[in-house]
Amino acid sequence: MSLWVHEFRPSNFAELDLNERLTDNLRQLCTEEELPHLLLYGPPGSGKQTRVGACLQELFGAGSRRIKIESRQLDAGGSKKLEITMVSSVYHVEITPSEAGNQDRFVVQELLKEIAQTQQIDQNAKHRYKVVVINEADHLTREAQAALRRTMEIYTSNLRIVMVATSLSPIMEPIRSRTLLVRVPAPSEDEIAKVLQSIAAAKRVSVQSDAVLHKIAATSQRNMRKAILMLEAMYAQNEQLTESAVVPLADWEAVIKKEAFEIVKSPTTSKLAEVRGTNYELLSHCIPPQIILRTLLLQILPLVDAKAAPGIIEAAALFDHRIRLGTKAIFHLEAFVARVMNVLSSR
Amino acid sequence: MLRYRQKSVQEADPDTRKPFGVPIYELLTSLKRKAEDGDLPNDVSKHSGASNTVKSSKPSKKRRKISPMLAQKYSPNEFFDLIGNDDSNRRILKWMSTWERAIANYGKKGNKAPALEDVDEYGRPLHKILLISGPPGVGKTTAAHVIAKQKGFVPLEVNASDERGSKVIREKVGIALGSHQVISTKPVCIIADEVDGAEQGFVKSLMYLVNKKKPKKGDTILMRPIIAVCNNLYSSTLHSLRPHCEIVRFERHAPALLLRRLSRICELENISKSTKELTELATINQFDMRACLNSLQFDSGEDTGFIVTDPVLLARSQLNGKTPLTFSQIESCGDHDKMLDTLFDQYIYSDFVDDRVQKPSKISDFYELTDSRFANDDHKSVLVHAFGSLFRRPGANGLSTSISSHFNTTSQQKSTKNLTNAQRYEYKRLSESVLSQVLNGSEPIIRATISKKVALLEFAPFLTKLVCPLNEAKRIESVARALKSVGLKFQLISEEANFNYILNPPIEQVVVYNDKANVRIGQSLTRGAISQAMEQLGLTNSANNTLVKDTSAASTDSNPNTKQPQDNINIPSKRTAIPATGKVWVQFSEGFSNAVRKPITWNDLFDS
C-alpha cells in the first residue's frame, strides 16, 4: 500500500497489458538461454522500467524483487571522491551514472568493472550472468559511453547490460550496435484512460464521466506515471471527478505556462526583465535548463502564429545547443526569450 | 568602554570569578554603571565607538586618517558588540556554556554533571563540534572568537594558512586540547577556520578527536570545545563531519542593522558619507560587513564590476568628464567574469530604446562566445565592448540610479525571484539535498523506480498536492499511507503562536513556487488529521512527530527566516530559579523579527 503509481504497477509479464506484442517479444527473449544486451528507449512514463522489472522477474524469479539500496564511494581520480546510490538484489544492480554528472566515467569504469569481474554467487541462480540496469543512459557522457563499450564485450559471460533511455540520439553508434534496441512507445490517450478507469474502479473513486479521464490523459502528455499521480491528487482534492474538474499541473509547469503566455502577450524589454526573475526562480528550484527551454517552447507554440513558429523552433534548437556547451544557463534562457520576443514583434 | 570593562574584571578578586569566564553579572553591573553615565546599554553601536572616541580625541588635521584596517579596528570585541544573527550568537553562547560547565566539573568527584537531556555523561554537549556556516563577511569567525573569549577560553585558531595534515593536527591540537595554557589558567578553544577548504585528513582527525570514547589509561577524552567555521555547509569534505556537529547558520545582515553600524563608524572616523551612499556601498558589497569596511577605507565604494561596467553602459554625456573605457582598460581589469555578470545583471535595467527587443536578442550571440568551454578572456573583453556599442546611447539615464533602485527592491522582497547569485546557489544546493533526502528515505521498491529527475519533475509536485485532501477519513488514510511510503512526515512547529504542520524533509520548499504560507495555515486542520492517521496506523514513530515548541514566550529560537524548519532547537524550560539580580530588556532590531514580549532574565539565556 503506497502511492497508486506503485500499487498498480505491473510486476510481471502477465500483468502488463499495454503494447502486447512488445511484451510477448520480451518474454520470449527472457525464456531463452542467452540474453543480449538491451537498450529500452521511449518517452517518459511509457513503461520502460516496468518492463525491465518484468524481465528481471522472468529471468531470476522473485529474488530480483528483494532489493536494497546502498551508497558507494568511488575514487574519481586523485583525491576526489564521488558517491553513488545503487539499488541492488542478488541478481542485478541498478545504477544511474548520470547522477555523478561529468564524472560518470568513473562509475562505469570502477563500479561496472567490479561487478563484471565477480561471478554470480548464488549457485542455484537460473542464469550465470548478473544484470546491470543503467538508467538515464542517454545522459551518459561520451567518455562514459566509450568506457562502456569495451566492458560490454569483454565481460559478456558475467554481465548483461540493460540500458534505459528517453532518446536514442545521444547514445553513440558503437553502443547501439552492441545492444538490442527496444522501442517502448507511449500509451495512447485511450489506453491511459482505460488504465485510469480500472484504478478508479479498484479504489472506488466516483468518476462522473469518462471525459475527465481523457482530460487527465491529455494533460499528462501520454505519460502514464504522471496520469496516475494526477488522478490520485484529484481524488484527494475533489469529492467527485466531474467533467469540469481541474486537472492539476505540476507547479513548475504552471509557472512556465504562465511565463509563455506573458512572453507572447507583450514582447517588450521590460517584460524580458520580469521573465528573467521567473527563469532564475525555476533554475534555483533545480529544474534542468533544457527542460525549461523545451517546456517553454511547447507552451509558446500553440499561442503564436504558424508563420512565426519555424523561427522560434530554430531559436530553441540553437540555444538548447548552447546551454549544453556552456555553464551559465540563465544567459541562454534569456537569449531564447529575447529571440522569441524579437521574432514576435518583428512581424 | 571596552577596555574599561576588562580592567574592572581584572580588578575583581579572582576567587569570586565563575570557573573561567567573565561572569555575566559583572558585565551587567558594568553595563548598568555605564548606563547611569548616560550610555545606553542596548545601543550596541555606541559601544564599539566609545573606546575609539577617547582614542581619536586628538583633533586630527587630515580629514581622514585611518591607520589600522577599519575591518580590524571595529571588529567586535565582546558579545554585546555583535550585530545581527542574534539567535545564532545565543546558540553558540549556550553551547559554550555547556562546555564551560563540563570542564569545570570534569575530574571533580561527586560533582556530577546535572542530568540535562542535551549533555552526555561528562556533561559535554551531545554534538562536540560547533559548525558555523554562512556567507563571507557576516562575522562568523569574529563571533566564534568573541564568544570563546567571553566564556573564558583562549581561542586557538587553526586556519588554511597552517599546515593541516592529519598528523600535525593530532599532535598540535591534541596537545592543546588537553591542557591549559601555560601563561594563563584558561582552557583552550579550537577555532578551525575555513574547514570546507581543508583536506580530508583534517576532518578525519577532528572526527578522531571527537569520537574518542572510553579513555585508556593515560589517554584523555576531548574536554575542550571545537568550533569549525565554513562557507559552504554542503561541501563534500564536510559530509562526514556534519552529523557530529551542532550546526549554526549565519545569514546576511539586515540592511538597516548594517547601515546603522556603518554610519556610526563613519561618524567616528570622520568620513562623510550620506545614507544613500552607504546604502549603495552595502548593496554593492552584498551586505558583507568586511567588504563594506574595506571599501570604505579605500573609498572605492564600487567594486571592480561596477567601475568598469558602469561607464560601458552609461552614455558619454553622463560620464562627467571621464572618458569611456578603452579596450586596454577593460583588458587590465582582469576580472572578466565578474564584469560580465554585472553587465548581464544590469543591461536590462538600463534605459535603451528598443521596441523590438533586438539588442538583447543580438547580444545573445556574444554570450555563446564567452560561455563555452573554449572561451578565453579575449572573448570576454570583446563581449564587454559589444555591450558598450549596443547599449550606449547619448542622453540615457544614469545607470547608477537604475542600479540602486533595482537593488533596493531586491533587498526588500523575499521571494526566490530576487536573490543574489550566491543565495540562489545556496537555495539550489539546499533543494538538491532535500530531494535526495526524500529519495533515500523512501522505500527501496519505490527508490528503485524513481530517478532524481523524475522525482523532481513528476513525483514531488504531485506529492505536495496530495497533502491537502478533503477532510474525509477514507481520503486521509490513503494520503497517510502514500506519505509514509516515501518517508515523509509532518512536523508540528510553532510559528508566532500559530501551529503549522510542515512536511519533513521540507519538500514543499523545493516544489512550491510562490509562498503559500497563508494557504498552509488554513490546511493545518487536515494536515493534523493526516498526521494523526499516520500515527494511528502505527506507521510513524511518535518520536519524529514531537512538538518542537519554544517554551520561552520570547521564542528566542524560531526565527521564521531560517529556511530549514527542523533547525529549530529546543530550549530547555526555565532552570532552577536563581534569583535574578537584574532584569534586562533587550531591544531587538531587524534581522531578528520575534520581538520580546515579556521580560526574560539573562539567566534563562546564559544559564550561568
Automatic annotation (TrEMBL), chain A:
SUPFAM superfamilies: P-loop containing nucleoside triphosphate hydrolases, post-AAA+ oligomerization domain-like
InterPro entries linked: AAA+_ATPase, DNA_pol3_clamp-load_cplx_C, DNA_Rep/Repair_Clamp_Loader, P-loop_NTPase, RFC_lid
Signal peptide, first to last residue: none
Keywords for this protein: ATP-binding, DNA replication, Nucleotide-binding
Family annotation (SMART domains): AAA (SM00382)
GO molecular function: ATP binding; DNA binding; DNA clamp loader activity
Biological processes per GO annotation: DNA repair; DNA strand elongation involved in DNA replication
Recorded superkingdom: Eukaryota
UniProt GO cellular component terms: Ctf18 RFC-like complex; DNA replication factor C complex; Elg1 RFC-like complex; Rad17 RFC-like complex
Protein name: Replication factor C subunit 5
Automatic annotation (TrEMBL), chain B:
GO molecular function, one term: ATP binding
InterPro entries documented for this protein: AAA+_ATPase (IPR003593), ATPase_AAA_core (IPR003959), P-loop_NTPase (IPR027417)
Gene Ontology CC terms: nucleus
Domain of life: Eukaryota
CDD domains xrefs: AAA
Span of domain AAA+ ATPase: 126-272
Region ranges (Disordered): 1-20, 36-68, 551-573
Positions with biased composition (Basic and acidic residues): 8-18
Coiled-coil intervals: none
Protein name, as recorded: Ctf18 protein
The species this protein was found in: Starmerella bacillaris
